[in-house]
What does this fold into?
Amino acid sequence: MFATTSHLSAALVALSALTAHAQNAFSGAVGFGAIATGGNSGTTYHVTTLADSGAGSFRDAVSGSNRNIVFDISGYIVLNSAVSLSSSITINGQSAPGKGIGVMGAEVSASGKNNIIIRNLRMRQGRLDDDSGKSAFNMGKATNVILDHCSVEYGQWDSIDAVGTINITVSNSIIALPIGQQFGAHVETGPSTFYRNLWVSAHNRQPLSKDNTQYLNNVVYNYQAAYTAANTGGYFSHDIIGNYFIAGPSTTSTSNDYYQMNNKQSVYASGNYLDSNKDGALNGAAANTVGSALVLSSPWQSTSRSLATLTAAEAVTYVLANAGASPRDEVDAYVVSSVLSYGTNGSLITNQASTGLSNNGYGSLS
It folds into this structure.
């Protein structure tokens, strides 16, 4: 199927700034993961079957490095076991015809790999996977990874696991409805950029940032604990700009929009809003108080202000219209509809089937 853990040193900060400016992944890529080169200069592999393995399969496509992967088919690829990516690959989910492409039933893993670009891919683990210690997407100990316009739902351990990962961007994506631990994303090492994402109905870790982080123009709905640093995470810096936290039916303490932000953390927080009243309308107030963290007078990362171009209210409008894999499917429409209730709908779940959606809760892409 072939065709042709301390604050960063001054030196590392300088290197991170260069990384944040690099945009090698694709036009419009931002943040620390944008330095990823993927398989853009390699051979093109056409995925031609929804089968789990064999010639023309997704599993075969990601088994070799230096590959630019495109899809000639649409629908769900049902994984019988976790699939491991190779280094230096680009996954172009936007190339799929019709209603797009997704994988379901097991973990997608870039663990220990480098230079990974994934766009417009749905990754939905769910209860089809009998290994509750796996995540929907795992990039532990990877380097230079960017997820853009992806939809990550029904993760059992985490939606996104990025422990020990260097240079991460998650942008324009939906991270929602985790089951099992009900956690969003766990990041250690970094640095990381979370940009214009929609986080919905998680218990915690939206994300858990044990690293130096840019958190820009995100929307978090129906949280129990939203942006989290953790009491034992170490000394890190956080730019938190233009985000909107919206309480929902599962929110037990609205003040946990920032969670475990202790005096080991240095935070620049500006333009963030919290809608705490669950009254069916978006009508929040400024929310830039970050626990006992050291308050920074300017961002730790030089690009943060220039990337956070939306107000918190504008971020809600933009993210609800644009986040996730395209075209928007049944699962993502369900997620967005709960947010649009602005406090009256939504719940934490333990099984994707409880959504009542077709295909045992996974929805249909055919």
The chain is about 10% helix and 30% strand. Residues 2-22 have pLDDT under 50 and may be disordered. The CA atoms of residues 114 and 143 lie 5 Å apart. The chain has one domain: 2-349.
